[in-house]
Inverse folding.
C-alpha cells in the first residue's frame, strides 16, 4: 500500500500534469516548465513500493537457468559458487563506484549470497526485488542529501580534493563518511559548472534539476527492469557476453541488427520531465514534416487522426518511444513545444505518417582520400563500417522485402569507388563492436577467391569451418584494415582473415579480444503462450578461431603497424572482464595465403617512424596520448577553483596552439582564441572539417608506401642493403 504521504505526492503530480495538458494550447513553454518544476519539490513515490515479481518472470528465470545449463559453452552448474558470483555482479551492477551502499548494507545483503541459484530454480525471485528496494532507498537518500547541500553557500577557495573513482575503495562505514564523499561530489559537480562560466544561481538551479531528475528516473523503474537487472547479474556470472534481453531491449536489438525501424525518424532523450528531440533522421518523416527539430519537446502523443492526445510529461523515455513507433503508413500526432532561444515556443500538434526508417548513420559509407607521397598522387577509397549488421539475423527468412546487409552495402560502395579509379582501399573498423557472423564471412569473400574464413568450436569439441564458397573477388587491389581497442568480435575475424591470407595490412591498435560466438534465443517460443512476452537470452555457444588455429579470445588481433594508444589492453580489453573465457588454439585450417606481406613490414614501419618524427600533427597526437596516460591513473581532482581554472587555461592554450597549426596546414586563418559557443562555420571551414583524421591520413600514407614498393620492389632490396643507416 502507498502511504498517505506518497499518495499526496502522486496526486500533486497527476493534478499538475493534467493542468499542463489542459492549458497546453494557451501557455508558453516557460509557463509549462514553471508549472512542472513547481511540483518537482514533491518527489515521486519509490518504484519499489508495492513492486512484486510478475508470475511470467518466475517462469522465465527457470527457463533461462535451463538454457544456460544445457546450451551455454561452459555448461555452468547452478550451485553456491555461481550464486556468490551472481551476488558480486548484482552489487557491482547497482553500485559500481561504491557511492550508495554502506559496509553494513553489504554485510546484510551477504546473507543472500548463496540463495540466488535456489531463487532461480524455485521461481522465488523476491530476493532480487529486496536488493533493489534497499538500493533505491540509499539512492534517494544520497540525492536528497545532495539537494540539501545546494541550500548552502558555494565555496571553492579551500584546498580540498575529491577522489571520484571509488571502484576499489572500501565501503563507507557510516552516514558521516558517505555524507563527506557526497559533499565533495556535489562540490565537484558545481565547480564543473562554474568553470563553464555559470553563476552560482544557475549552478544551483541546474544541479537541483539534475538531482531531482535522477530520483525521478529511478522511480520509473518497473518489475521488468528489476528482473532484467537480476538476470543479467546471473548471466554476467557465467561470462561477460551472455545477457538477458527484456522484451523492450530485444526489440531494440532487432532494430540495431537490421538498421531499420518503423516510426517517425527521430532520436529522443529524457530531459527532466520532458521527452526531447536529440536529432532527426535524414529524409525521415519528422524531417520531411518541416515542423519537428532538434531540442523540441514532446508533451503529448495521439494515435491516428481521431485518437485522444495522451499527456506524456513525466513518462519514461522508452514508454514514449513505444507510443510513437508503429506500422509504416499509420498516423501519429505529436503535441510539440518548439524550441526557441527565448523559451517562448507555443505548443502545437504535428501530424506525421510513419515510415520504415533506415538508420544510415550505422550503415557502411564511403569516401575518397587524396595522398601525396614522394611526388606521387594516390586516390584511396575509404569504407567506414560501424557494425556488421544484417536484417536476416533479426527476422525470419520467410519475411519478404529488401534485406539490409553489410556485405551488400560494402559491395555497392566498392563498385562506386572503382568508378573513381581508386589506387587502394582502406576498410575502417575502428570502434566496430561486431555483429553478424555470417556477414563477416561473406564480407571477407569480397577480397579473397575462396576458402575458410573462421573456425568455430563448441564446448563438446565439435568443429565447424565457415567458408567463402564463391570463387572470384570483387576487389583484389591494395588493401588496409584500420582497427583499435574497440574493434571486437566480427571485426577481429575480418582483420585476422585479411592478415592471415596476406590479403592486406592491419593498422592501428591491438583489438579488443572477443573470440566468442553468441546465439539469441527468443524465450517466447519456449513458453508457447502468444499472450506472454518475456524477451530473449543471448548466450555464448562457441569460441571462434582464425584459420591459423589461434583464438582471438583475450589476446585480440595484433596490428602489423601499431599506432600509439592510451588504452592498456590488459585493463580495457576482453581480458579485463570478469569471467571471460580463456585463450587457446586448435589445428590450422586448410587455406592458401594470397601473399606474404611480412617482407614489406620492416620498410613500412621504418617509413612510418620517419613520418612520426616529422609530421607535427601526428606528433601532437602522440603527445596527447602520453599526457593522457599520465592523467589516466590520477583518480583525484582539486576542488579549488583557481587551481582548476589554471589547469583549464593551460589546456586551452595548448589546444589553441595546435588548432592554429592545423588551420595553417589547411590554409585557414589562425584563431585569436577558442570560441566555445561558436555554432556556425564558414563553408570553407565546414569542408576542412570533413578531412580525414590524423590516424586515417597516416594509414593512407602507409598504404601508399605499400603500393609503391609493390610497383618498385627494388626499394625493398635497397632498404635491406642500407638497414641500420638513414639512407634510402
Amino acid at each position: 500500500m502507498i502511504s498517505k504521504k506518497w499518495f499526496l505526492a502522486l496526486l500533486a503530480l497527476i493534478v499538475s500534469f493534467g493542468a499542463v495538458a489542459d492549458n497546453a494550447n494557451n501557455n508558453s513553454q516557460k509557463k509549462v516548465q514553471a508549472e512542472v518544476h513547481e511540483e518537482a519539490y514533491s518527489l515521486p513515490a519509490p518504484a519499489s513500493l508495492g513492486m512484486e515479481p510478475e508470475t511470467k518472470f518466475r517462469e522465465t528465470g527457470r527457463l533461462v537457468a535451463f538454457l544456460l545449463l544445457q546450451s551455454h559453452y561452459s555448461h555452468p552448474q547452478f550451485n553456491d559458487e555461481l550464486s556468490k558470483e551472481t551476488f558480486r555482479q548484482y552489487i557491482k551492477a547497482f553500485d559500481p563506484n561504491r557511492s550508495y551502499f554502506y559496509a553494513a548494507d553489504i554485510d546484510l545483503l551477504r546473507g543472500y549470497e548463496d540463495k540466488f541459484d535456489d531463487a532461480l530454480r524455485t521461481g522465488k525471485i523476491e530476493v532480487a526485488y529486496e536488493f533493489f528496494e534497499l538500493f533505491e532507498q540509499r539512492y534517494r537518500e544520497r540525492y536528497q542529501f545532495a539537494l540539501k547541500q545546494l541550500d548552502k553557500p558555494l565555496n571553492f577557495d579551500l584546498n580540498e580534493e575529491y577522489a571520484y573513482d571509488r571502484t576499489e575503495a572500501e565501503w563507507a562505514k557510516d552516514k558521516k563518511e558517505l555524507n563527506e564523499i557526497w559533499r565533495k561530489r556535489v562540490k565537484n559537480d558545481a565547480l564543473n559548472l562554474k568553470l563553464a562560466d555559470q553563476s552560482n544561481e544557475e549552478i544551483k538551479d541546474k544541479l537541483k534539476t539534475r538531482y531531482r531528475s535522477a530520483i525521478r528516473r529511478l522511480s520509473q523503474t518497473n518489475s521488468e527492469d528489476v528482473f532484467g537487472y537480476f538476470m543479467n547479474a546471473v548471466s554476467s556470472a557465467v561470462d561477460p557476453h551472455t545477457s538477458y534481453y527484456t522484451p523492450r531491449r530485444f526489440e531494440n536489438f532487432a532494430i540495431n541488427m537490421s538498421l531499420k525501424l518503423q516510426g517517425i525518424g527521430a532520436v529522443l532523450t529524457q530531459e527532466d520531465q520532458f521527452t526531447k528531440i536529440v536529432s532527426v533522421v535524414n529524409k525521415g518523416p519528422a524531417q520531411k514534416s518541416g515542423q519537428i527539430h532538434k531540442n523540441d519537446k514532446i508533451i503529448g502523443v495521439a494515435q491516428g487522426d481521431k485518437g485522444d492526445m495522451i499527456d506524456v510529461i513525466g513518462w519514461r523515455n522508452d514508454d514514449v518511444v513505444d507510443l510513437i513507433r508503429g506500422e509504416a503508413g499509420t498516423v501519429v500526432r505529436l503535441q510539440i513545444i518548439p524550441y526557441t532561444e527565448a523559451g517562448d515556443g507555443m505548443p502545437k500538434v504535428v501530424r506525421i505518417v510513419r515510415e520504415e526508417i533506415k538508420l544510415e548513420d550505422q550503415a557502411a559509407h564511403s569516401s575518397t582520400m587524396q595522398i601525396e607521397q614522394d611526388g606521387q598522387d594516390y586516390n584511396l577509397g575509404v569504407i567506414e563500417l560501424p557494425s556488421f549488421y544484417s536484417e536476416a539475423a533479426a527476422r525470419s527468412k520467410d519475411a519478404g522485402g529488401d534485406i539490409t546487409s553489410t556485405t551488400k552495402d560494402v559491395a555497392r560502395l566498392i563498385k562506386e569507388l572503382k568508378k573513381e579509379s581508386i589506387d587502394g582501399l582502406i576498410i575502417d573498423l575502428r570502434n566496430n563492436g561486431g555483429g553478424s557472423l555470417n556477414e563477416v564471412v561473406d564480407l571477407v569473400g569480397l577480397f579473397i577467391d575462396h576458402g575458410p574464413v573462421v573456425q568455430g568450436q563448441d564446448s563438446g569439441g565439435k568443429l565447424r569451418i565457415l567458408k567463402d564458397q564463391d570463387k572470384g573477388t570483387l576487389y583484389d587491389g591494395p588493401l588496409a584494415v584500420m582497427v583499435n581497442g574497440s574493434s571486437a568480435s566480427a571485426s577481429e575475424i575480418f582483420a585476422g582473415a585479411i592478415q592471415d591470407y596476406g590479403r592486406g595490412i592491419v593498422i592501428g591498435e591491438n583489438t579488443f579480444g572477443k573470440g566468442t560466438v553468441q546465439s539469441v534465443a527468443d524465450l517466447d517460443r519456449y513458453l508457447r503462450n502468444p499472450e506472454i512476452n518475456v524477451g530473449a537470452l543471448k548466450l555464448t555457444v562457441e569460441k571462434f578461431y582464425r584459420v591459423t588455429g589461434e583464438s582471438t579470445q583475450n589476446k585480440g588481433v595484433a596490428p602489423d603497424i601499431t599506432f600509439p594508444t592510451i588504452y592498456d589492453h590488459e585493463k580495457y580489453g576482453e581480458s579485463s572482464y570478469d569471467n571471460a573465457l580463456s585463450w587457446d588454439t586448435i589445428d590450422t585450417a586448410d587455406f592458401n595465403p594470397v601473399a606474404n606481406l611480412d617482407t614489406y613490414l620492416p620498410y613500412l614501419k621504418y617509413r612510418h617512424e620517419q613520418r612520426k618524427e616529422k609530421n607535427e600533427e601526428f606528433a601532437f597526437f602522440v603527445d596527447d596520448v602520453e599526457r593522457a596516460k599520465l592523467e589516466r591513473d590520477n583518480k583525484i581532482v582539486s576542488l579549488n577553483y583557481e587551481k582548476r581554472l589554471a589547469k583549464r587555461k593551460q589546456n586551452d592554450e595548448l589546444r589553441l596552439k595546435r588548432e592554429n597549426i592545423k588551420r595553417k596546414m589547411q590554409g585557414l586563418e589562425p584563431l585569436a582564441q577558442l570560441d566555445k559557443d561558436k555554432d556556425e562555420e564558414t563553408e570553407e571551414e565546414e569542408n576542412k572539417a570533413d578531412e580525414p583524421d590524423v590516424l586515417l591520413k597516416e594509414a593512407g600514407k602507409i598504404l601508399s608506401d605499400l603500393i609503391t614498393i609493390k610497383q618498385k620492389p627494388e626499394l625493398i632490396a635497397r632498404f635491406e642493403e642500407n638497414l641500420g643507416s638513414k639512407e634510402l
Observations:
- Residues 1-41, 393-400, 677-690 have pLDDT under 50 and may be disordered.
